[in-house]
Design a protein that fits this description.
single chain, alpha/beta, Rossmann fold, eight-stranded mixed β-sheet, 5 helices
Amino acid sequence: MNSATQTMQLQGPSGILEGLCDVPEGGAFKGTVVISHPHPLFGGTMQNKVVQTLAKAFVQNGWRAIRFNFRGVGASEGAYDEGRGEVDDLISMIEATCEAAQPMALAGFSFGAYVTSQAVARLSPSNNLEKLVFIGTAASRFQVAPVPAELHDKTLVVHGELDDTVPLASVLDWARPQSLPVTVIPGVEHFFHGQLPLLRTLISRHLRT
């Protein structure tokens, strides 16, 4: 993302996971966000533009941002595991990079939002989870876990009105039983082409509340 981006290699459940770490200017940070990327079999990586936008928004608001490649992507070892192993990958990254005494945030795009939801369902309520961000949530393709009620005020869900990869209706069907708000960007498709600055603004606004 910038000249200060640091590469990482951490031991995951099925081998080495490669990642990238960005910190705010000056090096101090209020907490750590771990960001999950889109579907590995459809070109999803930690370099995805929406994933980079998430990282930029968090860094600009004082957070350290960790991005990583799921098993079988890039230099990460292992093979695609239909979401099961990818949840294990995310949990291992959280355990390796998030300190118990500091705030934690989780964010994901598309398949990464599904993986994030499943990780949240497995995390202990004692975790210092301060912010959740779901972008283009793959609710039509995977069993996205509901967001615990106590985290609703800390959660941002953003979806494009014209998303033809994950129809908006499927995300509303997921959110409706929870009374979980969804922010819809009119005229925008799955990858938010031309609207990444607006997406970053929405994320930043959420982080400041």
